[in-house]
Amino acid sequence: MSHLYDNAPPRPEGYRDVDVQQLATGRPPGLHLVDVREPVELDGILGHLEGVHPAPLATLREAATLWPRDTEVLLICRSGARSAKAATQLVGMGFTRVMNLAGGMLAWNAHALPVVRLTTEPLPNLGQVGDTLRARLAGMRVPAVESLPPEPSREELGAVLDALQAEPPKERGDAAAFEKTLREVRDLLAVAKPGGGSRP
User: Fold this and answer.
1) ∠ at Cα 146 (110, 148), nearest 5°?
2) Pick from 162, 157, 103: which is nearest to 125 by CA?
3) pLDDT tens-digit profile of 37-47?
4) Which residues pair with 116 in a beta bridge?
5) What angle is formed at CA 150 by the lines to CA 45 and CA 190, rounded to 5 degrees?
6) Which residue in 93, 114, 145, 153 is deepest, having the highest Cβ count within 10 Å?
7) Which one is catalytic: 55, 73, 76, 77?
């Protein structure tokens, strides 16, 4: 058994949270990496970890029936929320060494750690992420977005997205479409490289 599980902080639900840096520096042999996102997400801009086994959350119970209960399992998703649910499910099934990747692929990408990415499109820079956010919310009069500098920092963009999530603008229209925009821009932010936007 590895030190990854032993050194990860325990959760009340019975699994342990693993920090992305812990996994990057000490991925033990034999660790069963399971990504519970939908297949299309594994091929999206956030990519996936090399050697991961796909098992969407809806099918996890069925897939897990074939695994030994003492297998060291590390669950992964986009943000750590679905994988936390999956970890709780596995603990309920009797698995004894279950881990969740805290922050998921968003955190992994934000730390610029190695990822398998099938898309060949160039990754955006921070300025382009800001431009995308401005374009998607054009006409909504959102002061926090309008006051973003042409070359915003990762922290500035993250703070604006957090504020929009906490208090959506009244003019947002379709709530589901607005949520999708925030999600897509947050994904872009996670993979973005430093640099300016397309505006002069």
Assistant:
1) 40
2) 157
3) 999 999 999 99
4) 48
5) 25
6) 145
7) 77
